[in-house]
Design a protein that fits this description.
Length: about 400
């Protein structure tokens, strides 16, 4: 009979469930490496970047050197890690800020994955090594101002002109748009929805920064405009047929969110615990009051449940492939709970919680965007409902 490990006086939230026991050595090492990068390189600047609504372009190369860009892809300069390792990297990045995870997610799971999964060998060879290293930046143009949850109705159009394609239309809410060297753009054609690899220096292509954001400020969000953008036939993604292609890319990005959102929750909770332990109220630490401990305990339970769910989905993805409704399950629960945790942590900080000195309100603001992008909570509810009933209530 083995004896239990000796108890310690104070545990970090995820230590209560011994979450690290569920990871192998490589997974723990990857998480620790990304965590150090966030602490040493990103956290010192995040408040200023959030306040000034900027994301330094040079971070792309640093993310590439770290090995997180397209890290779950094989070859072409990509690390070829498992899905769980990618998820853990997303968690650590979003513990810094959702903008960091969004950059890496869009680069690897949307821009790179679309080329990796649906592109020609020529397209892969031309772009994936550059994107993996951070020497080039990519974006993914699917959403339009009037077509978010219903991308099938997109108005962007591609028509054949001789042996070329001519693209016209606009895309909205595009992360990395103004930084990008290449855009994967989805458009209606006479043969259905098709994808195109569009170098952003192509005549007729422009990107406009979206200003006055209250959320995801340490991230570049843009409108893409395609005005008679002429592309050779080789720009089309040859293996993308119909709406299923871009939706499969979104599932890759949503998987990262399942993990990433919990990083924002964990950081908020750790910040609140540290604050309440050193903040005296009525001549005793705020953390010693029952109401405070109830809040901290409830948030720790929800965070732990979310991490177990994320790891379960990651193991399924690595073993046999995770289904879209399972991704919906994870994103719906984890983002919803992460947002609730960040908001609750802000209350424990009192007036100090509204400043950028502390992270919970910044995380909460960011999670308001994460709640609705890559599929709104309502759409994920209906995805689960369709799986349970066989009826597509959103059609």
């Amino acid at each position: 009979m083995t004896s239990a490990a000796p108890a310690k006086d104070i545990y970090a939230p995820l230590e209560l469930l011994d979450v690290d026991r569920l990871l192998d050595e490589d997974e723990r090492d990857i998480a620790a490496t990304v965590r150090r990068f966030v602490e040493n390189r990103l956290r010192p600047g995040v408040a200023d970047w959030f306040e000034s609504a900027t994301l330094p372009r040079e971070l792309a190369k640093e993310f590439g050197d770290l090995g997180v860009l397209g890290m779950h892809l094989d070859g072409y300069g990509c690390a070829g890690t498992n899905a769980v390792s990618y998820g853990l990297a997303c968690m650590e990045l979003e513990a810094g800020d959702s903008g960091f995870r969004s950059f890496v997610s869009v680069q690897g799971s949307l821009s790179m994955f679309s080329i990796y999964r649906y592109g020609s060998e020529e397209q892969k060879t031309a772009w994936l090594p550059l994107l993996a290293s951070g020497e080039a930046i990519g974006c993914f143009g699917l959403t339009e101002a009037d077509f978010g949850s219903n991308p099938a109705g997109m108005r962007t159009r591609a028509r054949r002109v001789g042996g070329d394609w001519m693209l016209n239309g606009t895309k909205m809410w595009i992360t990395n748009g103004n930084l990008a060297d290449v855009a994967t753009v989805w458009a209606q054609t006479d043969e259905g929805i098709r994808g195109f690899v569009v170098p952003t220096d192509t005549a007729g292509f422009s990107a406009n920064v979206i200003h006055k954001k209250l959320s995801l400020r340490a991230s570049v969000t843009s409108e893409l405009v395609l005005d008679n953008v002429r592309l050779p036939a080789s720009a089309q993604l040859p293996h993308a047929r119909g709406l299923g292609a871009p939706l499969s890319c979104l599932n890759e990005a949503r998987f990262g969110i399942v993990f990433g959102s919990l990083g924002a929750a964990r950081d908020s909770l750790e910040t609140a615990i540290a604050y309440t332990r050193q903040r005296d109220v009525f001549d005793r630490p705020l953390s010693s009051f029952q109401l405070t401990q109830e809040k901290l305990a409830n948030m720790t339970v929800e965070l732990g449940k979310g991490v177990l769910l994320a790891l379960h989905l990651g193991r399924i993805k690595d073993a046999e492939g995770v289904r879209p409704e399972q991704i919906s399950f994870g994103k719906l629960n984890n983002v919803r709970e992460a947002l609730a945790i960040a908001r609750e942590c802000r209350t424990l900080l009192g007036g100090s919680g509204i400043t950028l000195e502390y992270s919970p309100l910044r995380h909460a603001n960011n999670l308001e965007s994460v709640l609705t992008y890559e599929g709104t909570s309502e759409m994920h509810l209906l995805s689960i409902g369709r799986a349970l009933t066989g009826h597509a209530a959103f059609r």
